[in-house]
Design goal:
Layout (H helix, E strand, L loop, with lengths): L11 H16 L12 E6 L5 H12 L3 E5 L13 H8 L5 E6 L4 H7 L5 E6 L5 H15 L5 E6 L6 H10 L5 E6 L8 H9 L4 E5 L2 H4 L5 E4 L10 H7 L7 H4 L7 E3 L20 H19 L6
Parallel strand pairs: 1-2, 1-3, 3-4, 5-6, 5-8, 6-7, 8-9
Helix pairs in contact: 1-11, 2-11, 3-4, 5-6, 5-11
Length: about 300
């Protein structure tokens, strides 16, 4: 039995196989429409979510399975003090696979240690968001045709952004990847990721404060929102939330084949006037998230479709 806690749980070869499967699902959805008949997915979401929860549920429904779960800690026995380990032991009696989002880093890891069904980490605090990373990899591969020889700009909240942390961990395993880290001083990438991931793997990177200075060099711009829920006080959030706003004028500085990704939700860091730009890939990214989670469910349940 396998779980997904981090993108590093899969080798590069396994990642490529999973992305190939996701692309086959996109091309041949009817072939997979009954692959999970009789199977149940439990979505245990202790934190609010739209895309991650609904895309997991849509993925299972598209495979012919069914879903159950809760969408906030308040609507579960966690509000009565039940532990994660007891919850997963209980849910293991009801479902075949589980996706968990939790505000505490490491909570899904605790769950998988006590679970008799595969557990998918659907985001834990500011730590990891591996299914978003799988979505990002599929999107990049589809729009650029490759996952190597790329300059990736990561912009916004690099300190608390779990999507950024997961994506860096995944991409450093591909050849000739270079990062431009675009953030204010207060939201810089954590020291441990710079040293333990980038420096240790001899990955080229530089840090910029101005988005405009980085735009001409990029193959991919990965925008993130400044996350209000990660700040300890309102004043710091208000000061940082509008630090970066991508608009049509800034897009003029970018190469014609640079694509913009965003894990969503956005607040105002991407102006709506960018949505019609053919390089805006963030809503395509949402659709790819369903295909990649369908592929992940099949892989963790060890279900093969001829």
């Amino acid at each position: 039995m396998r779980h997904l806690m981090s993108p590093l749980d899969f080798t590069v070869e396994e990642l490529d196989q999973l992305l190939d499967l996701a692309q086959d699902i996109e091309a041949n959805p009817k072939k997979y429409a009954h692959a999970c008949d009789g199977k149940k997915l439990a979505t245990l979401f202790y934190e609010p979510s739209t895309r991650t929860r609904l895309s997991h549920e849509a993925a299972m429904l598209n495979l012919g399975g069914s879903v159950l779960g809760f969408s906030s800690a308040d609507s579960s026995s966690a509000s009565k003090g039940e532990s994660v380990s007891d919850t997963i032991r209980t849910v293991s009696c009801y479902a075949d696979i589980c996706a968990m989002r939790h505000p505490k880093e490491g909570a899904p890891m605790v769950a998988c240690q006590h679970s008799s069904i595969p557990v998918i980490n659907a985001g834990d605090g500011g730590h990891q968001h591996p299914t978003q990373t799988l979505t990002d990899l599929l999107t990049i591969r589809n729009v650029k045709g490759r996952l190597n020889n790329l300059t990736i700009g990561l912009c916004g909240d690099l300190k608390f952004g779990r999507t950024v942390h997961s994506l860096i961990n995944a991409l450093v395993r591909y050849e000739n990847i270079r990062f431009i880290l675009i953030s204010p001083e207060e939201l810089r990438l954590p020291e441990y990721i710079r040293h333990d991931v980038l420096d240790r793997n001899n990955i080229e990177y530089k840090e910029e404060v101005r988005l405009e200075d980085a735009m001409p060099e990029l193959d991919i711009l990965y925008m993130t929102r400044v996350q209000k829920e990660r700040f300890f006080n309102e004043e710091d959030y208000v000061r940082m939330k509008d630090f970066y706003i991508l608009d049509k004028e800034k897009m003029k500085l970018a190469p014609k084949d640079m694509y913009v990704l965003h894990p969503l939700p956005r607040v105002n860091e991407i102006s709506v006037d960018v949505d019609d730009d053919p390089r805006a890939a963030y809503f395509r990214q949402v659709q790819y998230g369903v295909y990649v989670r369908m592929a992940l469910i099949l892989t963790l349940l060890d279900i093969h479709v001829d």
